[in-house]
Design goal:
This protein is mainly beta. It has one domain: Immunoglobulin-like (Sandwich). The protein has 2 helices and 10 strands. Strands 1, 2, 3, 4, 5, 6, 7, 8, 9 and 10 form a 10-stranded mixed beta sheet that branches. A hairpin with a 7-residue loop joins strand 1 (56-64) and strand 2. The radius of gyration is 16 Å and the shape is globular. It binds copper (II) ion (CU). The site of copper (II) ion has 4 residues, from strand 8.
Length: 174
């Protein structure tokens, strides 16, 4: 199952990411649009090596239940405790097509890759970057776990089993 992080560590990592993103964007507008569910992220720099390998883990993945057999979104966070990497491709044995989309304030566009920053996180979240999944072999149902295979430039392929959740689900709510 997904890693259970202690509350303290999780909070610290989230706070760190927020500070980094806010600095990079010179403001919180885009963060507010794309990262409002306060996902995890941010490396702590524990291993400190600037040129080492990427060290990726996937957290908070879910697929909101799509309308019968229709297009679904996919959300997850790729945490990186190492050097920069790139998400190049996502496939699933359960679906004919998985594409990566980047959202802007008013539109979205398909992209060929998404950056996973060094000691940071790539977040696919409501209102921001996301996956679009279609061509189901079998219509997903609540409680299903669907495999997604994420291919990265440096880290190879990471397979995750992604739960199908209610349409209104958001990770980390309590
Ligand atoms: Cu999209």
């Amino acid at each position: 199952m997904t890693a259970v992080t202690t509350g303290t560590r999780r909070f610290r990592r989230t706070a760190l990411l927020g500070a980094v993103v806010a600095t990079a964007l010179g403001g919180g507008a885009i963060l507010a649009a794309c990262g409002t569910d306060g996902g995890t992220g941010g490396g702590t720099g524990q291993d400190g090596a600037a040129g080492g390998p990427a060290r990726l883990s996937v957290a908070d993945s879910y697929i909101p239940l799509p309308p019968a057999g229709g297009m679904a979104a996919g959300y997850l966070t790729v945490n990186n405790d190492g050097a920069q990497d790139q998400l190049l491709k996502v496939t699933s044995p359960a679906a004919g097509s998985v594409t990566m989309h980047r959202s802007t304030a008013s539109t979205m566009e398909q992209v060929d890759s998404l950056d996973v920053p060094a000691h940071g996180a790539l977040q696919l979240a409501r209102g921001g970057n996301h996956l679009m999944i279609m061509g189901w072999q079998k219509a997903p149902a609540l409680g299903d776990e669907l495999e997604l295979d994420l291919t990265f430039a440096k880290s190879g392929t990471i397979s995750v089993r992604v739960p199908v959740k209610e349409l209104t689900y958001r990770p980390g709510q309590s």
